[in-house]
Amino acid sequence: MDAERDDRVVAYGTWMHRQVELWDHPPETAIGIEWFGVDIAYQGQRTVDDESIAKTLFSTIEMRAREDTNSTPDMPLVLEVDEENTVAQGFWTHLGFEYLDTVVVEPPRRQYLRMFRAPSMPS
Fold first, then answer.
1. How many CA atoms lie within 13 A of 94 on its CB side?
2. Tag placement on the chain: N or C end, fewer CB within 10 Å?
């Protein structure tokens, strides 16, 4: 083992297909970002390609989700973010996500902003 190697997990993320209702439309299948996080010591840090660790993680998750045989190019992306986490809200907004509605989880009473992003369609 290389003495310089660092095997720590610095970020994690998962996705899954899930049914969502967007406005008054019937439920449709979307790609849900289920878990997403970057270790606090690495938040804001850049990769060797000069991308943020968070953006690199998200790009990888989206790529793998869209490559899945059950995905279609027109699937939107959805996620929930804690209403008090303004840094995360800014990150998702920067990536093109928009507020959809607020979800309340009990117990304990926590509120999450549900956000979505329409797929980038090839031109």
1. 10
2. C
Task: Please give the Cα distance from 77 to 95 (Å, whole number).
Answer: 11
Q: Where are the domains of the chain?
A: 11-117
| pLDDT, tens digit (0-9, with 9 covering 90-100), for 80-108 | 999 999 999 999 999 999 999 999 988 88
Task: Average the pLDDT over 46-54 and give the result.
Answer: 91
User: What are the residues whose beta carbons fall under 8 Å from the beta carbon of 53, sequence distance 6 or more?
Assistant: 10, 11, 38, 42, 43, 45, 46, 47
Take residue 97 and report the two structure tokens written for it.
């996500």
Which carries the bigger pLDDT value, residue 122 or residue 62? Answer: 62
Pick from 68, 4, 57: which is nearest to 31 by CA? 68
Q: What is the mean pLDDT of the chain?
A: 90
